[in-house]
Specification:
By secondary structure, the protein is mainly beta. Helix content is 9%, strand content 43%.
Length: 297
Amino acid sequence: MNVKKNIRTVFFCCLIITGSTPCFSQLEVDAGKDTTYCLNSDQGTMYLENAVIKNGVEPYTIAWECKVPKGLYSYYTASDLLNDTTALEPQIRSTFGGKIKYVLNVTDSENNYAKDSIYVRFSSYIYLTGYHVYEVNKGDSVLFYDSPIIGGIGPLTYHWEPTIGLTNPDTLVTWCKTDSLTEWWTAYDVVATDSCGCASDPNRGYEVRINPTGSEELELGIVNGLNIRQEGTKIYFNNPHRLKAHITLYDLNGAICSFFDITNDHLEIANKLDSNGVYVVKISVGELTESSKFIKL
């Protein structure tokens, strides 16, 4: 028996060497390259892409796995995050911060097994609603030092728009030289870009307002004294004698949204603007003019 077995073994090996019988190489799996997805409002459908199976004998049995902590003793698995854990290129349906390790397990019809892994990161940003407002004299300098954007995969780089008046618009910390400004009111937005090249949406960081002098007050319309304040959907201001008040509403880009005259000390904003958001109201009563931000909810 041993002699016959050895003869069959040698004969089988010879057949393989001479190419007279099929011969399959070792099963190999490549899950693809580590990937970073930039998450934003325009993000399309995401997939685990470019996985490759080499050699082996079809059909293959595919199983993706991962383990993401969601509590002290609980985890999200691949079935929670992918639409189909048995597909070679499944759709990603849930994202998390940080880095996720996905493991691709493959078994062929001859029960040969191989696996490979890929790391996937998701870059996203959080936008803060508050921003800095400076009212300064012409020629003064304002230091930009803070960003209203957090998140991304650090380190982050920054770019300010518009660039007018800035000593370096491509750094977070920069000086704004107001002697270069041509408008009484300039708003600066910042864009952050992370180490993976994922860019944020622009977000308001600073407003610089130039204080007027003399006859410029009425033209520029930023003299204090009306005490503009918002209460719910109404804006109140000082007008005890019920003089005619000229009202102008602007968006944060300085575009006029509406203007009208009233003889009152308040105005209802709910029906004056089409969209919710942050706006600027300028009110002129006699020789007094004042501007202030407000929110339409």
